[in-house]
Amino acid sequence: MKIAVIGLGPHARRVYVPALRRLRERFGVEVALVVELEAKEAEVRAFLATRELRPELLFVRPFQQHMPEDVKAALSRATRREPLDGVIIATEPLSHRAYAEWALEERLHILMDKPVTTRENAATELQQAVGIYGDYEALLSAHGRLQKEKQTLFSINVQRRFHPGFQRVMELLKEIAERANCPITSIQSSHADGQWRLPSEMVTLGYHGYNEGYGKVSHSGYHFFDLAWWLYQSVAHLTGKQADFAEVFSSFQGPSGYLRQLDARDHERLFGPEYRSSRTHDEESLKQRMRNYGELDAFSTIRLLEEGESVCHLSINLLHNSFSRRDRLQPGKNLYKGNGRVKHEHHSIQQGPFQNIQVHSYQSRAEHDESSGDEHAVGGNNHFDIHVFRNSGLTGDARPLEIIRMGELEERAGYDSERLATEQAKEAVVVEFLQFIRGELPRERVRSSIEEHRVPVRLMSSVYASHVLQREGNNPIVGFALR
Fold it and tell me: 390-422 pLDDT, tens per residue?
């Protein structure tokens, strides 16, 4: 089985390459082609040399929505020399659509990182915000046409669907749905990752940056629109009580707002006189430049309605500007893991008067490859607790509170407690992809095919559109049909 990895950045190096190496014998899989930007050639060659991998290499110049004809021709030539079974698309999401369209034309199986796509200036231009959903519709249509000729998989990597903790949450929700016929009545979610970029770095650092007119919503935010909808609709399906319309309101904080929270004098007090000499832009020019930057933080309220009546509220709060362990002036080399980024994630899921499930996952260290003993405790690398409150008098449970720890979940899932659970969940996504290609998994058991992402993509698109409409002084409520 031959796979191309398109985009060999920090995420692919940490997740996809190690997973494919571990799965080599089980699936007979090899990395046959790697595609990366020309500017990354030296570091890609150095990385692959240390992993004893010898794929064909193709280095291309940057592009976004449309693939240049010479790049398409080079990709197709490489595919003819080394026939591929599938591709893993792990590039900057601005180029997701172009690579996916090429892979569909080549009739290949696709595993693609979230989000499905994003657009430059999605946070400032309505056409680009709406265009995110247009990209999805185009890819879904192209994939549908291909299925008439060949049954291929187009999977989106949203690893929380595969995470043993959220799998257990789903089981608990379905138990109450079957006993009480009650759907999910509200979800409150918060994800903060402490990405502290200093003001000039917001201009100069592109990885998970803001200088192309989008930010946190496109970086990791899509996971939480997908998670909320996946939980809601799965339980609603059991009860037969399904919302038919959604209304979305969002509020963003951008880099220019950050400059009002911490100004140049504050940064100089924190980092000393070296801060002044490290700046590439003065504060006034930064304020003007950052007016059209993407979002640091995004706060969204989503109202789900059935026949005009509110039946569920989703509150999804996404923060880069949050507790961080960064304590040095110069950024670290690895902007994906390290550089002070720590995850604080919380979910509270209400099921009427019958059940409240709270998920708590809080890290305290940015160096996630270093063990400190109890990784399952609050602040540990693998901290993930589920607190289950139930109306035991009606549900028949022995007690009103159960606390489920990550250690139990890992044992149940066969996970290695020495590795990050989130990265093992991402590897499970790769396993499913390879199982489908080998014919070992029927389509109905695939957990994240592109067909299931219509509403999450529409939510992401609407969150951006709501912000743009508010920015322009228009009605910021964005509505759309769910059926």
Answer: 999 999 999 999 999 999 999 999 998 888 899
The boundaries of every CATH 3.30.360.10 domain in the chain are: 159-416+450-481
Question: Cα(396)–Cα(222) distance, rounded to whole angstroms?
Answer: 36
- Per-residue exposure over 253-265, b if at least 16 CB sit within 10 Å of its own CB, e if not: bbbbebbeeeebe
pTM for this predicted structure: 0.96
CA distance 418 to 349: 29
Residue 226's closest CA among 91, 335, 119, 347?
347
371, 419, 467, 363: which is closest to 164 by C-alpha?
419
Residues of the chain with CATH 3.40.50.1380: 2-113
**Which pairs count as long-range contacts for 404-407, CB under 8 Å and 24+ apart, including other chains?**
404/168, 405/376, 406/165, 406/376, 406/382, 407/376
Q: Is the dihedral of CA 433, 437, 443, 449 positive or negative?
A: positive
Q: Torsion-angle region of residue 414: left (phi > 0), alpha (psi -120 to 50) or beta?
A: left
363-391: pLDDT as tens digits: 999 887 766 678 999 999 999 999 999 99
Q: What is the CATH number assigned to the segment(s) 159-416+450-481?
A: 3.30.360.10
The token pair that represents 359 in the structure block: 């998920």
Cβ burial, residue 301 (10 Å; 0-12/13-18/19+): middle
For helices 421-437 and 164-180, give the axis angle rounded to 10 degrees.
80
Using the structure block, give the residue that is written with the tokens 């994939």.
Answer: 143
| CB atoms near residue 418 (< 10 Å) | 10
Q: State the alpha helices, DSSP H only, in 247-347.
A: 255-261, 264-271, 274-278, 283-289
pLDDT, one tens digit per residue, over 333-373 is 877 777 899 999 999 999 999 999 999 999 999 887 766 67
Q: What is the CATH number that goes with domain 2-113?
A: 3.40.50.1380
The span from the CA of 387 to the CA of 389, in Å, is 7
Helix (H), strand (E) at residue 168:
helix 164-180
